[in-house]
Amino acid sequence: MELLAQVRKTIREHRLLSFGEPVVVGVSGGPDSLCLLHVLTVLQEEFGLQLHVGHLNHMLRGSEADADARFVAQLAAEWGLSVHIEAQDVAAQAEHRNLAIEEAARQARYAFLARVALKVGARKIAVGHNADDQVETVLMHWLRGSGLAGLRGMQVNSRLGELRLQGSALEGSAAAGQLRLIRPLLNVRRANIEAYCSAHNLRPRFDRSNLDTTYYRNRLRHELLPFLETFNPRIREVILRSASVLAADYDDLRQRRAQAWAEIVLVESDEAIAFDLAGLRQLSKSLQRSIIREAIHRLRRSLRNIDWIHVEGALTVLRRGGTGTTATLPRQLKAQVGYEHFGVSDRDYVQPAPNLPLIPELDLRLQVPGRTQVPGTAWTVVAQAIERDELRDADLNHDDRLRAYLDLRVSGTELKLRNRQAGDRFWPQGLGDHATKLSGFMTNAKIPRAWRDRIPLLVSRHGILWLVGWRISEPAKVTDSTRQVLVVQFQRTPDERE
After folding, report:
1. Does the domain formed by 3-231 have CATH 3.40.50.620?
2. Which CATH number, 3.40.50.2000, 3.30.413.10, 3.40.50.300, 3.50.40.10, labels domain 363-492?
3. Which of 170, 214, 229, 378 could link 176 by a cystine bridge, Cβ 3.0 to 4.6 Å?
4. For residue 221, what are the CA distances in angstroms to 32, 84, 190?
5. Which CATH class for the 254-346 domain?
6. pTM of the model
7. Per residue in 357-407, pLDDT tens?
8. Which of 213-222, 393-402, 415-424 has the lowest mean pLDDT?
9. How many CB atoms lie within 10 A of CB 182?
10. Distance in angstroms (rounded) separating the CA atoms of residues 495 and 498
11. Is the pLDDT of residue 353 over 60?
12. How far is 3 from 196, CA to CA, in rounded Å?
C-alpha cells in the first residue's frame, strides 16, 4: 500500500486526529520525522490540522546537532509552520540523575514536546516511530524480561502519562497526563519511509550516532536482528505479529483487571493500596500479577520498569504468606499480608489495624446471652442483657463501631449473623421515618464495594437490627421507655498463625 494511503488509513482506523485540532510534531530532521511532517502537511487541509514543529537539541553531537536545529527551523519556515526549538545538556542530565544517555534523552525529548503542546493548546503529539522501531522495541523489552505490557511494544495511540517522565517538571501534571502520543508511521517499514523521502526530494539529516553500537538499541539494529535473520529471514514480521497478538491479550487482561480491582480494592491513597485478601487470593495468578504491577505503578508512576523478581516475591507472599509477612518492592515500597487484606504501600507506612469485621458467607445463630465464635474469622460476638438503669446516657453516645446497644424488647434473643441478601431493607437510626434499600445506604455511606457482601448484619425476625460498624436500626434504639438493653460486642480473638 502506498505510504500516504497507509498513514491515512491508520489515522482514521485509530481516530488519531480530530478535524481542526492543533498537533505538535516531533522533528529531529532524520528520515522518519521528516517523512511524518511531510505527510501531515499533505493531509493538513483534509484534516484541518494546525501543525507545530518541535525540535530538541540534545547537545550530544556538537556542531552537527546545531546544524540539525538550523535545518528544522529553516524547513518549518519554508513550509509555513510554527516551530519551537530548545537545547538541553542531556549528558549532564544523565549524569546528575544516574540515567543512561538514551533514557535521559528520551525523557528530556518527551517532556519538551509536552511543554510545547501545553503552550500551543494541543492535545496530540505526533512522533515518527516506524515498524522497524517497533521490532527493536519489542525485542529490547523481551531481552529485559518484560511482561505483556512491554512485549506488545509501542501503541499507535497512547497517553503521555504512560511514559513516566521521572524527574520532569511535568511528572504528576494532570494536564500533561491528558496529552496523547500518536505514531501515524508505526505500521510503515523503514525502507518505505526512505523511498518516500527520495520520491519527494526530501533530504533528511544523517545522525552518525545511529551507527554507534555502544548504544543498546543500535546493537539490536545492526548486530542482533541481522543475526536472527540467518535463522528466520522473516523474523521482523514474526515479532510484529507477536506484538499485535500480545497487545490484544493485554487489552483483555487490562479489562478483567479493572473489573477485579473495583471488586476487591478496600483503600487507595497516595501512600497505600489495600485489597480484600480472600478476594485477591481467589483470582487467577495472571490477574494477581497484573494487580500487583498496577498497584506498584499507581504508587510510583514514574517507575518505568518493574522487575519480575519483585512481582514474584509479592505474589509468593500473597499466595502463601501468613499475617504480617512482607515482600520488598522497588522504590521503597512493600507488599504485606494483613488479617483480612493485602496491602502495597510505602515501606515506612504503618497499615492501620483492621478494626471492622468482614465475614465469609454464613448464617450464624448467636448465643444470647453468651459468646459466639464467627467461623473463618478472628472475631467473637459477645451478647449480654443489662438493665437500662445500669447504662448512662454517655454510654449511648459512644464511638465504638464494634459495640451496639439495642432495646431488648425489640431485638429479642433469637438473633442471627448473616451477610446481606438481595432485596434487604434497613431503617437506619436517625435517617427518616421509613426503611430504605440496604444497597442504597451502603452506597451513600461510601462503604467500599468489596466490603459490602462481607459486612455482618445482626438480624432478628423483625429484620436488620445492626449494620455492624455503621448503624443500628431506628426501631431497635434505646429510648426512655426501654427497660432492658441488649449489648452486642465484636471482639478480636488471637490469630492462630501468630
Report:
1. yes
2. 3.50.40.10
3. 170
4. 16, 30, 12
5. alpha beta
6. 0.67
7. 888 888 999 999 999 999 988 899 999 999 988 887 767 777 788 999 999
8. 393-402
9. 23
10. 6
11. no
12. 7
